[in-house]
Specification:
Layout: E1 6-11, H1 24-28, E2 33-39, E3 42-47, E4 51-56, E5 62-67, H2 68-75, E6 87-93, E7 97-102, E8 109-114, H3 122-125, H4 138-145, H5 152-157, H6 167-176, H7 197-216, E9 246-251, E10 254-259
Antiparallel strand pairs: 1-6, 2-3, 3-4, 4-8, 5-7, 6-7, 9-10
Helix pairs in contact: 4-7, 6-7
The structure holds a DNA duplex.
DNA sequence: ATTGAGACCTGTCGGC
DNA sequence: TGCCGACAGGTCTCAA
């Protein structure tokens, strides 16, 4: 998309999780894409007008990228109707590429924000440090967890503490760091806010788990066998010499996978 | 101010 | 084969 112009923008419905902003199509059409970046789980497309297109995939959102010729062929194909049922947004670009947003559960979202409003935009405003940046270290995590009475697992899902961690990698990181998902978040730092060794371990584990996931494109296709403990209830704990069994618990409405033996 | 519960949706899978 | 309930990768809102 970078460098290309939106020649056509099509909305197949008026909302996803929330309504599309008024004037969405008109404000996008004719704009050239300057940048395509990311902040946490939000995708940001910078436009020549100064506006930014903000997008989130929710749980089931994804983009199909194909030549415009292929997209046109598809739209005339009755057999594809079932699979294309959840195509909600179609971007036709001047480069000859068509980018289609498909999202069965419609938990995704798209918004259009002026550049000066971007830093204040809803959840983007309060979002925490990027996990793979230098800025995210034991000090930063200790600050984020200070005084929080919630469990470590629930804290990692809070995007204000650290950006971009979801239910799978919260379990994976805590396991790698040998930390109990039920431990109170505030206990990773001393009263005066100095990070404990466990805090440093968790930062290292988060970075390691995410780097590995990115290098393997791990969740691009959901493949449970690639996770160490997520969705492995009842199997042996993969920690060398541990011998524990992987358990499953329920926290804040989400399932947590963990080992009672090596995670304290 | 923080926290937990429920809501928003459709698809899939296991059990009967 | 078909029906039913449980559960799914994420926020967001509301009430306590």
């Amino acid at each position: 998309m970078t460098g290309a112009r939106f020649t056509r923008v099509r909305l197949n419905r008026k909302d996803l999780r929330r309504p599309f902003p008024r004037g969405f199509v008109q404000r996008l059409r004719g704009q050239t894409v300057r940048t395509v970046t990311r902040r946490g789980k939000y995708l940001l497309v910078g436009l020549s007008s100064g506006d930014a297109l903000v997008m989130h995939l929710g749980m089931t959102g994804w983009f199909r990228v194909e030549s415009t010729a292929a997209a046109n062929r598809r739209s005339g194909d009755r057999d594809q109707a079932l699979e294309n049922r959840h195509d909600h947004v179609v971007f036709t670009m001047s480069s000859g590429v068509t980018v289609t947003f498909n999202d069965p559960r419609r938990f995704g979202m798209m918004d259009l924000v002026t550049a000066n409003h971007l830093p204040h935009h809803g959840s983007l405003a309060a979002i925490g440090p990027e996990p793979l940046s230098r800025e995210f270290d034991a000090q930063a995590l200790a600050r984020g967890l200070a005084n929080r009475k919630i469990s470590l697992k629930v804290a990692l899902l809070d995007q204000r503490v650290v950006a971009g961690i979801g239910n799978i990698y919260a379990s994976e990181a805590l396991h790698l760091a040998h930390l109990s998902p039920f431990r109170r978040a505030s206990t990773l730092a001393t009263k005066s806010g100095v990070p404990r060794p466990a805090c440093t371990r968790l930062v290292t584990a988060i970075k390691s788990v995410l780097r590995r996931a990115i290098s393997l494109k791990q969740t691009e296709r959901y493949d449970e066998s690639r996770f160490r403990i997520y969705d492995h209830e009842g199997e042996r704990c993969p920690t060398p010499g541990c011998g524990g069994k992987i358990l499953r618990a329920w926290q804040a409405g989400r399932s947590t996978f963990y080992c009672r033996v090596c995670q304290r």
